[in-house]
Specification:
The chain is mainly alpha-helical and 212 residues long. The protein has one domain. The protein has helices spanning 4-34, 39-42, 56-64, 85-116, 125-144, 152-160, 166-185, 196-211. α1 (4-34) crosses α4, α4 crosses α6 and α5 (125-144) crosses α8. The longest helix has 32 residues, at 85-116. The chain is globular, with a radius of gyration of 18 Å. 32% of the residues are buried.
């Protein structure tokens, strides 16, 4: 496990993932505050300091998966503190993925400018960090927009659905984590089983190709 590839990922992908997750959670907290809920801010989550956001189990999984998967602590949101809870729930949830798309676009612009000026080497650390930064943030954004609880996409979907569908959605959310876990784990044991990457791959790969 702890071979050259692992240490390369630890040195390049590790910092990118930690930074991206921290920004993602910060923007959840920031957007919640803008809508009137200061719960996350009072709990010290209105920061990009990774120590405020990293989850112990998520960090362990990140290392064990060789920096291909992991998660941060969800930002607490109290929708009782906002006026329009459906609108707030949508935009507070969407803020995280949007922040990752923004990071990807900024890193893409830096990469293209520096590459066009001949300032990047093919396999240099900074080159790989920029490339992986774009890829990781696009995957992180679209993974989180999958409409399965507890991902951001489940909140976005629920806030857009008519009110009469709220109860069926809440019932579905009880089994959604198991479906999500299956989509992540089962492809490793069942050849050909559709997984997360096969679902969002057709969307993210063209975007990554365009950005890089």
């Amino acid at each position: 496990m702890f071979g050259p590839e692992f240490f390369e990922r630890a040195l390049i992908a590790g910092p990118v993932i930690i930074f991206s997750l921290s920004v993602h959670e910060f923007f959840h907290a920031w957007s919640a505050l803008k809508f009137g809920d200061d719960t996350a801010a009072r709990l010290g989550r209105l920061t990009i300091n990774p120590l405020a956001h990293l989850d112990m189990m998520g960090s362990i999984v990140m290392v064990m998966s060789q920096f291909t998967f992991g998660w941060a602590k969800p930002v607490p949101v109290n929708l009782m503190n906002v006026k329009d809870y459906r609108k707030a729930d949508f935009w507070i949830s969407f803020a995280g993925p949007l922040s990752n798309i923004g990071i990807a676009i900024i890193l893409s612009m830096i990469y293209k400018v520096l590459n066009g000026m001949g300032m990047l080497t093919y396999d240099g650390y900074f080159t790989l960090a920029l490339q992986w930064g774009v890829q990781i943030n696009i995957f992180l954004a679209f993974f989180n927009m999958i409409p399965l609880f507890p991902l951001d996409g489940s909140h976005m979907m629920r806030s857009m659905m008519p009110r009469e569908y709220q109860e069926p959605i809440m019932r579905f959310e009880r089994i959604a984590p198991m479906i999500l876990l299956g989509l992540i784990i089962l492809p490793n044991f069942i050849p050909g089983f559709p997984g997360i990457f096969s679902i969002i791959g057709p969307i993210v790969f063209p975007i990554i190709s365009f950005l890089l």
